Amino acid sequence: MAAINERANGFPAEAGSERYLRIEGVRKEFDGFVAVDDVSLDIRKGEIFALLGGSGSGKSTLLRCLAGFERPTKGKIVLDGEVMNDLPPYERPINMMFQSYALFPHMTVEQNIAFGLKQDGLAKDAIRKRVGEMLEMVQLEKLAKRKPHQLSGGQQQRVALARSLAKGPKLLLLDEPMGALDKKLRSRMQLELVNIIETSGVTCVMVTHDQEEAMTMATRIALMDQGWIQQVGTPDEIYEQPGNRFAAGFIGSVNLVEATIDEDEPDYVTLRTPAFDAPIHIGHGITGFEGQQVSFALRPEKLGIGKAEPEQPHNKAHGTIEDIAYFGSHSVYHVRLPSGIKLMANFTNQQRWASEGMTWGDQVWLWWGDNDGVVLTS
Amino acid sequence: MNARALKRFVPGGRWAVIAVPFLWLLLFFAIPFLIVLKISFSRLAIAMPPYTPIVEYVDKALTLRLNLGNYVALFTDSQYVVAYLSSIKIAAVSTLLCLLIGYPMAYFIARMKPSTRNIALMAVVLPSWISFLLRVYAWVGILDANGILNRALMGLGVIDAPLRILYTPLAAYIGIVYCYLPFMVLPLYANLVKLDLRLLEAAYDLGAKPWQAFLRITLPLSRAGIVAGCMLVMIPAVGEFVIPEMLGGPDTLMIGRVLWGEFFNNRDWPAASAVAIVMLLLLMVPILVFNRYQQKEMEGRLT
Amino acid sequence: MNPTFGQRLLRWTVLALGYAFLYLPIVLLIVYSFNASRLATVWAGFSTKWYGELLRDRQILEAAWVSLRIAFWTATAATVIGTLGAMVMTRFHRFPGKTMFGALITAPLVMPEVIIGLSILLMLVSVGAAMGIPSKGMVAIWIAHVTLTVSFVTVVVSSRLQELDKSLEEAAMDLGANRLKVFFLITLPIIAPALVSGWLLAFTLSLDDVVIASFVAGPDSTTLPIKVFSSVRLGVSPKINALATLMIMAVSIAAIVGWWLMYREDRRRQLDMQLALQENG
Question: Does the complex come out with an ipTM higher than 0.85?
Answer without folding.
Answer: yes
